[in-house]
Amino acid sequence: MSLPTEPSIYIAAFAAIISTIALLWNIANAILGRKAKLRVELTVIQQMAVDPVQGLGNPIPKFDITITNVGALTRNIRAPMFQFRRKKEGLADRAKRFQVIDMTAPTTYPLELRPGQQYNYKVGVQGFVQHFKGQLSTKERIRIEVQDTHNKRYHSRRMSLRAVATAMHVAVKMRE
Prior knowledge:
Layout: H1 7-33, E1 38-47, E2 50-51, E3 55-56, E4 60-69, E5 75-77, E6 81-84, E7 97-99, E8 111-113, E9 118-124, H2 125-131, E10 141-147, E11 153-155, E12 159-160, H3 161-175
Antiparallel strand pairs: 1-4, 2-3, 4-9, 5-8, 6-7, 6-10, 10-11, 10-12
């Protein structure tokens, strides 16, 4: 039995293979495009008030939490939580997670995030450090956990408390 020598048969077979690959690619993109994706970032910043007469005020170190919906679907998120690696005294049932809610400007949760939308949340470092005084070392690492209304969890990268200690030190130095 000999192979066909007609070039159109080879071209048709090649086109069938390419179209099958393209179909599989489109199916994979459609499935992955519907997947929920939130990017959670945690940094420490120095926030200063500006007065037109006196200039810059004293720096206040704060945790800056940014949650971005990078998926194609709208997501509803619950309040962000801090998470330790180990359970801590001073939390209910020695928990590893806790929420910090700003009572001066409370946010109603769940919060809707449309595709591409960001939510920024700032929490003072001073109260955090005072509450856990004596339980934290600069080697400890924390991260932020955000849960959506479908109970899917998203995490930031872990941050060393050394960065928090540095921010506190800088704030004290700038006040002197």
